[in-house]
Design goal:
By secondary structure, the protein is mainly alpha-helical. It is 60% helix and 0% strand. It is elongated and about 55 Å long. The two termini are 18 Å apart.
Length: 209
């Protein structure tokens, strides 16, 4: 896609939603990190349902360690992979206490050293909690980037690189949320709503999926 079209497309996103927000509920960076870890292969609605009680019992890393892995698992048992997720949440809480006084670090390497935290989760936390212009490539962003011709890569990391290179800097801070929300509600996997799509005029896949 030509640079001027990419600029026009993201300008449309910005006009429609100047301050896009994700849908995971949290009140602190720690809670956001936990929510993102829990969201792997689960919906944001499902995660919000369990965290509304989990965070009441354990709002901080110290409280999460005190709660213990078994009780964490009990709180999140409606989510897929809940045993592994409970292990990760307990483990990352303990490591945050040991290495970072219970606070979430704002550096990629320190984040990715935490159990259950990969590149995608680190990107979300750096973007949402630390205001860094990172771009987490989840299934929605991956699909949309390829449909729009913004990326051709076959892996999330390859697509992330192409997006960071191709999207003008002024849009990078919010690009992640604009693409996710558009992928979740408009450019869905099976039935994209091309007829009512805000950015159809720049999309090479309009009406062809
Ligand atoms: S025009 Fe269709 S394929 Fe293109 S972004 Fe919009 S919904 Fe997706």
């Amino acid at each position: 896609m030509k640079k001027k079209d990419i600029t026009a497309l993201f300008t449309s996103f910005r006009q429609a939603n100047p301050e896009p927000r994700g849908e995971l509920r949290s009140e602190t960076p720690f809670q956001h990190l936990v929510a993102v870890v829990l969201s792997a292969q689960s919906t944001d609605v499902g995660v919000n349902r369990v965290t509304s009680t989990l965070f009441r019992h354990a709002p901080t890393a110290a409280a999460m360690v005190s709660l213990g892995e078994e009780a964490i698992a009990e709180h999140i048992r409606t989510l897929g992979l809940f045993h592994a997720k409970a292990r990760h949440v307990f483990g990352l809480s303990r490591l945050l206490l040991e290495r970072h006084q219970g606070e979430v670090p704002g550096e990629r390497a320190a984040l990715e050293a935490l159990p259950g935290v990969g590149r995608k989760t680190a990107n979300v936390v750096l973007n949402v909690c630390f205001g860094q212009p990172t771009l987490a490539v989840d299934t929605h962003v991956f699909r949309l980037a390829r449909r729009l011709g913004l990326a051709k890569g076959k892996t999330p990391e390859a697509v992330e690189k192409e997006l960071l290179h191709g999207i003008p800097g002024e849009f990078l801070m919010h690009a992640h949320h604009w693409l996710i929300l558009h992928g979740r509600y408009v450019c869905t996997a099976r039935k994209p709503k091309c007829d009512s799509c805000l950015i159809a005029q720049w999309c090479p896949s309009a009406g062809r999926v």
